[in-house]
Amino acid sequence: MGGVNQSGVRDHNERLVLSLIQRHGGLPSAEIARRSNLSAQTVSIIIRALEKDGLLLRGDPIRGKVGKPSVPMILNPDGILSFGLNIGRRSADLVLIDSVGVLRAQLTMTYRFPTPAAVMKFLEDGFKQLFSGLSRAQASTVAGIGVASPFELWNWLEAVGAPSEEMQKWRDFDLELEVGKRTKLPVITQNDATAACTAEHVFGRGREFTDYAYVFIGSFIGGGVVLNHMVYSGRTGNAGAFGPLPVPNHGEPGTTQLLHKASIFLLERKLVEAGIDPRRIWDPDYDWTGMDAMLDDWIDTTARHLAIAAVAACSIIDFERVLIDANCPPHVRHRITFETQKYVHRLDTRGIADPVVIEASVGRNARSIGAATLPLMSRFFLNQQGFS
Predict the structure, then answer these.
(1) 202 CB contacts (<8 Å, ≥6 apart)?
(2) How many other β-carbons are positioned within 10 Å of the β-carbon of residue 120?
(3) Inter-helix orientation angle 292-316/264-273, to 10°
(4) Per-residue DSSP letters for 37-94?
(5) In this predicted structure, which of 71-85, 114-128, 241-255 has the lowest mean pLDDT?
(6) How far is CA 370 from CA 102, 126, 322, 349, 376, in A?
């Protein structure tokens, strides 16, 4: 497994060519040579090798200019497949994506709280189901499995009603080892919000910008940072976490953390207090209708505090944009983004350029798609400067 018809981890120049095409879409060889600073002959050799391995296809000729039509090279969607596992505080997702980020398959499990036994059982059964549905040729293109999970999963679950004795089992659980045992694939792990940022950077609107802050609103809020076209994970892999950011604790002295003002578990609590089954909000098919005033109040509180976080982030780094995504329907994300930008305009931003807050594009599956992106980045693409 792990791509027997591919040449393992591609060398730097091959990865550079694949990354340019991934970021910009179809490119003729002359344009690849110009952007990469490689010679035309070197690019030609690389393209032939990548075609032979099934990673690139020839697109439709571009006509209308003097001389022969140029032929753009495009990624072969069937050239690479990758699995992703996201372990959330209320649900887990197992996905299969291709090299252009299309979600080929997805399985979801919801729970009151995650335990190692339950999540590994879900992975084992789900992986067997999805992998058995692949042809031999497809199976040979699987690059690996990425795993996204919250930083120190065991530390935060008291806030969402999880028993600490169950959560402590995660502390000594070797997640990478156990996932590898069950899938027999190369495994890469990453903080879940950073993984979501990776998905946006590789497959979403993030490709439009050089530097940006990325916010993902899940059970708890988190995020990531992109600098010079590169996802910056930081010393501990937790850069751009945003959840612990101090914000005003209205009506109380001092400050509180952003996660206590802008997380979905707060909406969940409101539903419980109103006698409404909160499990519906974790159903990916539920459109969040019927919550009315509770949803309005949650969006307003979330946006007010997100605006403070956006100004704080842009005071440290002059980000082009602040991108907002969430585990919610698109229309709710749109409202959160609009209200956040509105509150930014009410804050004192003298000394910095006003932060520009926009919607991200990958959506509620960003963490699991980001997890599946990790093997692609590890073996085929570049996450660094020099291919913008």
Answers:
(1) 22, 101, 373, 376, 377, 381
(2) 17
(3) 160
(4) T--HHHHHHHHHHHHHTTSEEE---B-SSSSSPB--EEE-TTT-EEEEEEE-SSEEEE
(5) 241-255
(6) 12, 18, 18, 33, 10
CA angle 72, 75, 79 (to 5 degrees): 140
- The band of 10, judged by pLDDT with boundaries at 50, 70 and 90, is confident
Angstrom distance (rounded) from CA 59 to CA 50: 14
Q: How far apart are CA 239 and CA 191, in angstroms?
A: 10
Cross-strand partners of 84: 95, 146
Tokens describing residue 26: 């179809």
Confidence category of residue 4, pLDDT binned at 50, 70, 90 = very low
- Nearest C-alpha neighbor of 26 from the set 91, 70, 72: 72
The answer to whether residues 213 and 369 touch, using CB atoms and an 8 Å cutoff, is no
CA–CA–CA angle 83, 88, 93 (5° rounding): 35
Q: Write down the H helix ranges in 71-157.
A: 116-132, 136-139
Nearest to 153 by CA among 112, 107, 192, 110: 192
3-class DSSP state of 108: strand
Cβ proximity of 192 and 149 under 8 Å: yes
CB atoms within 10 A of CB 255: 12
pLDDT computed for residue 2 by the predictor: 32
SS3 299: helix
| Structural domains for the chain | 12-75 (1.10.10.10), 81-196+368-379 (3.30.420.40), 205-361 (3.30.420.40)
- pLDDT digit string, tens, across residues 319-336: 999 999 999 999 999 999
**Gap between the Cα atoms of 92 and 119, Å rounded:** 7
The 10s digit of each residue's pLDDT in 171-227 is: 889 999 999 999 999 999 999 999 999 999 999 999 999 999 999 999 999 999 999
